[in-house]
UniProtKB/TrEMBL annotation, chain A:
GO terms for biological process: siderophore-iron import into cell. It comes from Agromyces rhizosphaerae. CDD domains: TM_ABC_iron-siderophores_like. The chain crosses the membrane at residues 20-41, 71-91, 103-121, 127-146, 153-176, 202-225, 237-255, 261-278, 285-306, 312-331. GO terms for cellular component: plasma membrane. The keyword Heme does not apply. It is a multi-pass membrane protein. Keywords: Cell membrane, Membrane, Transmembrane, Transmembrane helix, Transport. Its main location: membrane. It comes from the Bacteria. One of its GO terms (molecular function) is transmembrane transporter activity. This is Iron ABC transporter permease. It is found in: Cell membrane.
UniProtKB/TrEMBL annotation, chain B:
The chain crosses the membrane at residues 29-49, 61-84, 96-119, 125-147, 154-172, 202-224, 245-274, 286-304, 311-335. Its main location: membrane. One of its GO terms (biological process) is siderophore-iron import into cell. InterPro entries: ABC_BtuC-like, ABC_transptr_permease_BtuC. This is Enterobactin ABC transporter permease. The keyword Cell membrane applies. It is found in: Cell membrane. It is a multi-pass membrane protein. It comes from Agromyces rhizosphaerae.
Length: 338, 340
């Protein structure tokens, strides 16, 4: 894979790493998920659950708040990481994700537009509008990127970020005019704090998109080899790209509606997986999904415990951890390629 | 018209633009002269239309606004063209390095720690100096770290700057989310650039800074033209690439930081100005494109302010309109020409 970053292809070196990583993810995911269920301001311990309590308080809290929160952390992490992976395959560049290509900003603008024009719209409708805007954003980005010379790998995310910055400025301008700026910055800041039963179910739509991506995984691998190659193999290039765009836009919108913006996730997770097991999408999809879920669960637990009993927004924790990891990936690569 | 003469002289870096034997529209000097004349007319229009009460007072107040516009136009125009030459790319602006994010982070942190009243009462000179030092220091650190060392890739440096910018932004939005809505109100005004009613001392200081930076560019004009050929060619022609780029980058960061600290973040204005300057100047040489960018910046700011105040009847929100137009222009630019 020429344009993509380090696709190490020495199986002898990879196999032990893969086993270790597999064990790590396989153990970490259930452990973190269970921990996530029992961490919080109100006491929910396994003992309290067994006891039942006077009115089954612990159990109802678990069902109303903790389970939705844990489930959405897992789904958001898995789906965002997958969206990043597919974006990277479509653009053939390791440094892109919905957040560095303007897709998230377009979707946010869509949310704001639906909020202003149709305030009474149900969340599902808002998500639809956001997804449509995200789709437009993906399209614009893909068109722009076609013009960038192939060798300038780092230029691609730069252009995407400029694009996102512009759309973000437009959104901020509209929000400022309508006095919605603070509420905009509040709901677009990634957090699971308000997740409750009845407010998180939209992430299941993102989960459906993960399944779609899974089914089409081989096609995305081929797309990652370049348009000419894909067409020569008899692939309907445009259709696969269209599927990818829809998957990315819907995941972005669904995550935005439930949890807000979560930076770097789609960037960092697929890169790390690629270092461990290479670039075959069918093989790497479960890993990307699993590691994404572990990453978000871990960050969410950190967000809840660092300043206990207060909560740091998830977006901030992911932003700090993700920025560190991304810098490491960048500089590690940069030292070799430049 | 004194203003016209002054603008022409100052911005064409000392060269008498219109004194050439033959006049032809293809001559960049003639084009620049026309542009300077337009700026002069706009300044006159801005000064003398709709004077309420005392002329002297109006001249003083409006003079400050025009001076702020001039400082911003020169700083943003010149720095963006220099940045394009360094990065070999015409759709980037120096502000993506995280300048605006850092500016907002500093302001937010101050309000967060000391409260809105302390922030409002603080000496503007101290705030300005602090903003300037932190912003220039940040970009120079980044630069010496990533470009001065063995890696030396400009694009890598930009990307790292952006990552740090995202990091600043998540810190900022976290602090903002915890602020009182009333305190937040104080901050929203710092988030958008405002050109009218600048502080006189800061204006003078910024003007001096920008003027010094511009003066430092003048001896490099020839080298800049060689840099447009690309790094390998420039090195082949005897340019000490790393050193020149270091100096240029320092100048760019001083100019961007000075303008941001004076009027607030301006993201996409430079993009319009620089690209219009390339098309308009009729020459690739920096001796023409740099002053053209500064003058076009003046035309956009003054013209925009006049249209907003006189025709549409609401002043003050010029920077937002320009940001909006800049965004649309960027989209047009990349969709039409691609990202080269």
């Amino acid at each position: 894979m020429t344009a993509l970053a380090p696709a190490t292809s020495t199986p002898a070196r990879i196999r032990p790493r893969r086993t270790w990583a597999g064990v790590l993810i396989g153990v970490a995911l259930p452990v973190l998920a269970v921990a996530s269920l029992f961490i919080g301001v109100s006491e929910v311990s396994p003992a309290a659950l067994l006891e039942g309590g006077p009115d089954g308080d612990a159990a109802s809290l678990l069902l109303l708040s903790r389970v939705p929160r844990t489930v959405s952390a897992v789904l958001v992490g898995a789906s965002l990481a997958i969206a990043g992976l597919i974006m990277q395959m479509l653009v053939r560049n390791r440094f892109v994700e919905p957040g560095t290509t303007g897709v998230t900003e377009f979707a946010t603008l869509g949310m704001l537009v639906s909020l202003v024009l149709w305030p009474g719209m149900p969340v599902f409708g808002k998500m639809g509008v956001a997804a449509i805007f995200g789709l437009v954003g993906t399209w614009v980005f893909l068109r722009v990127i076609r013009q960038v010379p192939v060798r300038q790998l780092v230029l691609v995310p730069l252009v995407g970020i400029m694009l996102g910055g512009i759309v973000g400025a437009v959104t901020a301008f509209v929000a400022y005019r309508l006095d919605l700026l603070q509420s905009l910055s509040q709901w677009s800041l990634g957090s699971f704090a308000t997740i409750m039963q009845g407010r998180y179910e939209y992430v299941w739509i993102a989960a459906v998109m993960v399944v779609v991506a899974w089914v089409a995984a081989d096609r995305f691998s081929v797309i990652g080899l370049g348009e000419e190659f894909a067409v020569n193999l008899g692939l309907d290039y445009r259709r696969v790209v269209a599927i990818g765009m829809v998957v990315i836009a819907v995941i972005t919108a669904a995550v935005l509606v439930t949890a807000g913006m979560i930076p770097f996730l789609g960037l960092v997770v697929p890169n790390i997986v690629s270092l461990i097991i290479g670039d075959n999408v069918r093989r790497s999809i479960p890993w990307v999904a699993g590691l994404g879920a572990v990453f978000v669960l871990a960050c969410d637990i950190l967000a809840r415990t660092l300043r206990f009993p207060y909560e740091i927004p998830l977006g901030v924790v992911v932003g700090i951890v993700g920025a560190g990891l991304f810098l490491w990936l960048l500089l590690r690569r940069g030292s070799r390629a430049h | 018209m004194r203003t016209e003469l002054e603008a022409g002289q100052a911005d064409a870096s000392g060269r008498p633009a219109t004194r050439r034997p033959r006049f032809s529209w293809a001559d960049p000097g003639v084009r620049l002269g026309v542009l300077a004349a337009v700026v002069g007319v706009l300044v006159a229009l801005y000064f003398f239309t709709d004077v309420p009460g005392s002329l002297a007072f109006a001249l003083k107040v409006r003079g400050l606004t025009v001076a702020a516009m001039a400082v911003v136009a020169v700083a943003v125009g010149v720095s963006t063209v220099l940045f394009h030459t360094i990065t070999q790319n015409r759709i980037l602006t120096p502000s993506i390095m995280g300048f605006d994010a850092l500016y907002l982070l500093i302001a937010t942190a101050l309000v967060f720690v000391f409260g809105a009243t302390a922030f409002l009462r603080a000496d503007p000179l101290v705030l300005w100096t602090g903003q300037l030092v932190v912003m220039v220091g940040f970009s120079m650190l980044l630069f010496t770290w990533l470009f001065g060392g063995r890696r030396r890739s400009i694009h890598l440096m930009l990307l790292v700057g952006i990552v740090l910018g995202t990091f600043f932004r998540s810190l900022t939005s976290w602090m903002q989310a915890m602020l009182d809505p009333l305190e937040y109100q104080v901050l929203t005004d710092t988030a958008f650039a405002s050109l009218t009613r600048p502080d006189e001392t800061l204006l003078a200081l910024s003007a001096v800074l920008v003027a010094v930076a511009c003066a430092a560019v003048v001896p490099l004009l020839g080298t800049l033209d060689v840099l447009t050929l690309g790094e390998p060619a420039a090195i082949g022609l005897g340019v000490r690439h790393r050193r020149v780029v270091m100096v240029l980058f320092a100048l760019v960061s001083v100019m961007v930081a000075a303008s941001t600290a004076l009027v607030g973040p301006i993201l996409f204005f430079g993009l319009i100005v620089a690209n219009l300057a390339y098309t308009y100047a009729g020459s690739f040489r920096h001796a023409w494109t740099l002053p053209a960018a500064a003058l076009i910046g003046m035309v956009c700011l003054l013209g925009g302010q006049l249209v907003l105040e006189q025709l549409l009847g609401f002043g003050g929100s010029l920077s937002m309109v320009i940001e909006f137009a800049g965004g649309l222009f960027f989209l047009f630019l990349v969709l039409r020409k691609g990202a080269r």
